[in-house]
Amino acid sequence: VERRVSEQPNYVTASGLRQLQARVAELNALRSDLQAQGERVDKQRLADTERDLRYFSARVQSAQVVPPATSHSKVQIGSRVRFVDAQDQAHEVRLVGEDEADAGRGLINWGSPLGRALLGAGPGDEVVWQRPVGELVIEVTDVIAEG
After folding, report:
1. Where are the domains of the chain?
2. Integer Cα distance of 48 and 26 in angstroms
3. Mean pLDDT to the nearest integer, 108-127
4. Burial grade of 99 (CB within 10 A; 0-12, 13-18, 19 or more)
5. Quick one: the chain helix, strand, coil %, rounded to 5?
6. Domain boundaries 80-144, corresponding CATH code
7. Residue 107 and residue 104: Cα distance in Å, rounded?
C-alpha cells in the first residue's frame, strides 16, 4: 500500500528539506544493502523500503522551501510562537512543514488546526484553535524569528 501524500502545499523549512534529503539517502543505502542480498532478501522489507523511497523522493521533489522567518510581528512558517491558553498556561511551538512536524518536540505542521490558527497572527492577537474536542481561544504573546 502506497503512503498517502498530503494535498496541502509542501512548504518546508531549510532544515526540513535537509531531513527529507537525508531520509532519501538513508533509504537508498538500505535498498542497495537489501538488493545485495540477492535471493536471500526479505522481499517485504525491500518492498516497504522502495515504497518509502518513492514517498520521500516525491516529498523532496514537491518541497517548496520557505525563506527563514524574519518577522517578530507576524507568525510565519519557521517562526517560534509563544501563546497562552484560557487557563493562562504558556506554550511554545515552532511552525514547520508537514514532514518535519513532531508535536512532542513542539514542532507543529503549519497546515494543522493549531498551525492555521497561529499563521499570520501577531503578539496580542487572540485566535481560535479549532480542535476536535472544541474551540479554544489562545493569545499570541511572542513571535520569535529564526536564527
Report:
1. 11-65, 80-144
2. 14
3. 97
4. buried
5. 40, 25, 35
6. 3.10.50.30
7. 7
The position carrying cell 533509504 is 27
DSSP line for 66-117: PPPP--SSS--TT-EEEEE-TT--EEEEEEE-GGG-BGGGTEEETTSHHHHH
Q: Cell 493569545 belongs to which residue? A: 139
Cα separation values, 121 from 33, 66, 126, 132, 144, Å: 48, 18, 8, 21, 12
| Predicted confidence (pLDDT) at residue 78 exceeds the cutoff of 70 | yes
Count of residues in the chain: 147
pLDDT tops 80 at residue 147: no
